[in-house]
Amino acid sequence: MTLGEKIKLARMQKKISQQELGDIAETHQKNISKYEKDLVTPSALVLKKIADALDVTTDYLLGNEVDSAIKDTALLKQFKEVDSMPDDEKNALMKVISAYIRDFRTKAAYEV
């Protein structure tokens, strides 16, 4: 997937227009259109603003992350904090997360 395709996909998932993204990223809507069509590559500064506006990382947009990487920047920041915790604290948190995921999957299975 190209940079432009990723910008467009993330923008559509966020349900914002090119104009809205342009306003947030402090660039013109026409530039957003050109980025999405891969006619022009945004500067590093604009790319960072676009990534922030779309709640993705610049690495994701540039194709430097694997598909399974965390794209939710708020969640990624929290996991980075967890990574710096002592092992016993991390293990306790992992048990809570595992229990929540198990409960979520169970609930989803019964909703089908």
UniProtKB/TrEMBL annotation:
- Lineage top rank: taxon: Bacteria
Keyword hit for DNA-binding: yes
The alphabetical list of record keywords is:
DNA-binding
DNA-binding found in the keyword field: yes
Tell me where in this chain the HTH cro/C1-type domain is found: 7-61
PROSITE patterns in the record, alphabetically? Answer: HTH_CROC1
Q: Which SUPFAM superfamilies match?
A: lambda repressor-like DNA-binding domains (SSF47413)
- Pfam families xrefs: HTH_3 (PF01381)
Name of the protein this chain belongs to:
Helix-turn-helix domain-containing protein
Source organism (scientific name): Reichenbachiella ulvae
